[in-house]
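Appendix B. One record, verbatim.
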Amino acid sequence: MAKPRLRVDKTAALGFGENTARRGDNQTRWGRSRDLSKSAKRFIVAASIVLGLFSSFVVAGLPLYVFPQVDRRQYTDAIFVLGPSLQSRVSIAKSMVDAGLSDRIVISVPAGGSADDWTRQACAGETPYLVRCFTPHPFTTEGEAHYIADLSEARGWNKITVITATYHISRARFVIKQCYAGQLEMVNDTAPLPLSVWAAQYIYQTGAFFKAIGAGCSS
């Protein structure tokens, strides 16, 4: 007696295979989607951390570089202009002399001389102002602080005014006070600056500040 043959529904079998393939494709897509989702989350977290650190850095620097402590212009034994000797800074010193707040201007210039025409003339004694020019060694805030302290002690100046850029006020005050024991007044040059300069100075001044901390008035 012949055994009954097992009939296989090829259409059903094919459908089963297709369904299995579809489920496999769906699982693959879901796995890829899950991986992409994890990568996106990691990127968002990392970006948030970087943005938070950057924002904290900017906010912390505001009272140091953007809105530093600035002193009122008043009578002083001498006015020091820190380098570079820009016209905007020298003009402040001249206006103070014209107002009778001092009669001496001391200007920091690089070894090659100042780029400002009036400063070059003043350094050569060709103006009615009493001006003394010097090149600190090294040509840094620290070098300027040493010169300021030495000259002030030699001349008996117990109160001086220092003019520099707004972003430099806090660090210059800190460094100079390490060397100069008298009364120090800081006046800022408010000439407008491009955003790129502010960004660069944020980074530079912060690094230089950390370097100056603990250094004292080292020679």
